[in-house]
């Protein structure tokens, strides 16, 4: 995984995206997330795999543009959720404070 992330970061540098406009990168993320939703609604596994991968690529670059790493952001999020209490209702986790 680390090697793949490094390859994406290098690709981003090669394309000069690492210093690009992060607002545009966020829009690219939303576009790719929409492709994930479309693949799910159509039951298209190949398109889903591509969409998830493309979404992760956009997040790697967005983090890079802000001097962060994907691992750092994921660790931050995990530290936020690891002790979270709540219930899963209809396949969605609801935080205890929102119940």
Automatic annotation (TrEMBL):
It comes from the Bacteria. This is NTP pyrophosphohydrolase MazG-like domain-containing protein. Residues 29-85 form the NTP pyrophosphohydrolase MazG-like domain. InterPro entries: MazG-like_dom. Pfam families: MazG. It comes from Salinicoccus jeotgali.
